[in-house]
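Standup notes
- DV: blocked on the single-chain target, sequence here:
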Amino acid sequence: MNKKIYRPREGRVLVGVCAGIAAYFNLDPVLIRLGWIIFCCLWGSGILAYLVAAVLIPEEPEF
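- DV (later): unblocked, structure below
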C-alpha cells in the first residue's frame, strides 16, 4: 500500500499541515501542534518550515 500525506479538508486549524502529518503517522494532531509550537519558539525556523510544508503538501483530493 502506497501511503501519501495530504492536508485534510476537515479538522484543520490554519492550513492543515499538522493535521495531515498527524494522520500520516496515526498520531493525535494536538501532539504535532504542540511540537511545532516548541520548534517555533526554540529555533524560530518552525514558521518557515510550516509555510514550506503548506506549499509542498497537497490538499486532500475530493472523492
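- Follow-up: The CA atoms of residues 46 and 52 lie 10 Å apart.
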